[in-house]
Amino acid sequence: MYSICCARFLGFAMVPMAVVSILANLLLLFPDLKHSYLTEGHVTPEARWCTGIWLSGVVVLVAARGFASRYTKEGCCLFRADMLCRTAYSCVALCAAALCFLFNTAGLANGPLCYYNGTDGLEWGRPLKLQNVNAVNYIHDPQRWNSACLKPHGVVMWNMVLFSTIMAASGLQGVICLVQIIHAILGAIFGPGFCKNKVAPA
User: Fold this and answer.
1) What is the pTM of this model?
2) CA distances (Å), 197 to each of 22, 73, 191, 193, in order?
């Protein structure tokens, strides 16, 4: 039997994850807690896209509100229609969480935008970005974390922690959405109480 209480709990569970994702993305915009890098355009592109704010944050919150709303309709047909709406909300939230996860995975894998000592001297760029498929990713080479970038200070670890946080939040959101989709589909199939409480014809 479909449980509305469980659906509402799943919806409310999305809220803290969305808040964490929004806060992590905001912090990504201010490496070393300085606004000058953002105003000068020296912030990692994937952080500037703000997917943690508008995808894993706002879109997921709006969709979660849809399947966390209290059920007030009576009758099997109206119940099933409500379940289909909840399924649609969950699909929107799932797509948003998945896109956020993919964008932030790219941000983590390509490394931060920073000021470093390149072949042409000091310049802004992404020194930790893989140049060929056979190279070892910087994530698996901790010795490069402190020496790769001159500024912002500690930007490699800053980006790794915050991008990973957004990925974890959006990943959990995706799992919850999948559970909600399955839950709502079963509810649409079996109805309230397996459709024992049917509305009598007039």
Assistant:
1) 0.87
2) 43, 12, 9, 7
